[in-house]
């Protein structure tokens, strides 16, 4: 018993061996690594906590700003709606006045416009009547000229003169094509154009017994 106590005491008081020192160092190293890992994990947790808290603060700030903006928007919309109602009431009053003024002007102007339209229609009818009358005069003049030409031809025959056949045909063609009317303006009477006789008309006289 005494020997066992002595051996135990000697182990406590004597210097550690190399193997024991190595084991101790390994244990301390493992402990340091574990402590470092704990510190790293603790730092991460702390950083995550701070980040989450900042995010929470940012979200809270954004919510407050959103609520403030929504409140300002609602106030602005209510104010705009009130102003629009007031403007609409003023617009209705102005529109009613303009409508009444327009109706009064129409009551004055419509008879004047109707009178102008009647005058234009009457002027158009008169112009059409003048044109029809001018055409009738032209037709009568054309018939009269044709009759005069025919009478002149008969008189020539009676006097014993004979025209060259080609000149007679040309004279008749000019009489048909040259007689017409020219209307320069609807307000002017038509101008009558009368054909001229050819300048180189050949006239022959028959020989009678009296001439011999």
Write the layout of secondary structure elements.
Blueprint lengths: L1 H12 L4 H142 L1 E3 L1 H14 L1 E3 L8 E3 L9 E3 L7
Antiparallel strand pairs: 1-4, 2-3
Could you please describe the fold and organization of this structure?
The protein has 212 residues and is mainly alpha-helical. The protein has a domain at 68-203. The chain has helices at 2-13, 18-159, 165-178, and strands at 161-163, 180-182, 191-193, 203-205. Strands 1-4 form a two-stranded antiparallel sheet. A two-stranded antiparallel sheet has the order 2-3. The longest helix has 142 residues, at 18-159. The protein starts with a helix and ends in a 7-residue tail after the last strand.
Side-by-side strand order of the widest sheet = 1-4
Q: Can you write the helix and strand succession as a string? A: HHEHEEE
Give me the secondary-structure category: mainly alpha
Radius of gyration: 66 Å
- On the 0-100 scale, what is the average pLDDT? 70
Low-confidence stretches: 176-212
């Amino acid at each position: 018993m005494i020997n066992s106590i002595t051996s135990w005491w000697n182990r406590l008081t004597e210097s550690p061996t190399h193997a024991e020192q190595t084991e101790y160092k390994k244990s301390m190293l493992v402990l340091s690594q574990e402590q470092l890992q704990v510190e790293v994990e603790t730092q991460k947790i702390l950083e995550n906590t701070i980040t989450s808290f900042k995010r929470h603060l940012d979200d809270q700030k954004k919510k407050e700003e959103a609520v403030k903006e929504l409140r300002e928007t609602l106030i602005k919309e209510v104010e705009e709606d009130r102003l629009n109602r007031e403007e609409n009431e003023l617009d209705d009053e102005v529109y009613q006045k303009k409508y009444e003024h327009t109706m009064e002007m129409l009551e004055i102007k419509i008879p004047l416009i109707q009178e102008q339209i009647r005058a234009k229609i009457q002027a158009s009818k008169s112009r059409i009547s003048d044109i029809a009358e001018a055409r009738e005069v032209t037709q009568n003049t054309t018939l009269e000229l044709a009759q005069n030409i025919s009478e002149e031809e008969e008189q020539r025959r009676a006097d014993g003169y004979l025209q060259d056949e080609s000149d007679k045909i040309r004279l008749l063609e000019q009489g048909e094509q040259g007689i017409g009317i020219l209307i320069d303006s609807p307000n002017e009477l038509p101008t009558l154009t009368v054909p001229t006789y050819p300048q180189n008309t050949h006239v022959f006289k028959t020989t009678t017994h009296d001439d011999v």
